[in-house]
Amino acid sequence: MSDSDRQALRLAQDLREEMRAALPQLPSAPSVSPFVDQGGTPSVLLRMDADTARALMAVLAERRADRTAAPAPEPRRADGTVPPPVPPPGAPQAAPAPYQPIVAAAQFPEPAYAQAPFAEAPAVNPVFAGGTGPTPLVPSVYPTH
Questions:
Q1: Which of 21, 48, 117, 125 could form a disulfide with 52 if both were Cys (CB 3.0 to 4.6 A apart)?
Q2: In terms of Cα–Cα distance, which of 136, 141, 21, 61 is closest to 13?
Q3: Structural domain tally of the chain?
Q4: Is residue 58 one of the residues assigned to a domain?
Q5: CA–CA dist 87, 62 (Å, integer)
Q6: Is 55 part of a structural domain of the chain?
Q7: Which residue range forms the structural domain that includes residue 54?
């Protein structure tokens, strides 16, 4: 077994464990298969049913929403006032000209955009006449007839 094969096995095992930890309530675990591509790069193939795919998309969307959440509130003094911002060390201190008004900058939170709801594709019974249709990306070891 080559080093790339061992790395692919480890990658598949680690991904399988992370998927189980992130989606513990699923009755059927996704299938994670190790392989080494033609360039010698350790890789994995991931196969899952529709329920597992939806659960994974929900977890990913939740984590994405957590990263784009509003920043932590400003620090406040004991009396409730906000301290002035501290300039970085070595930054020049420029005084405003006496005839220019001093305007306090108001901070507005980022707008929250609602995520579009998941719309399931309509159920269609595809018919591929004459043997045309999608071809597998990976050759199958199972008979095709």
A1: 48
A2: 21
A3: 1
A4: yes
A5: 35
A6: yes
A7: 3-68
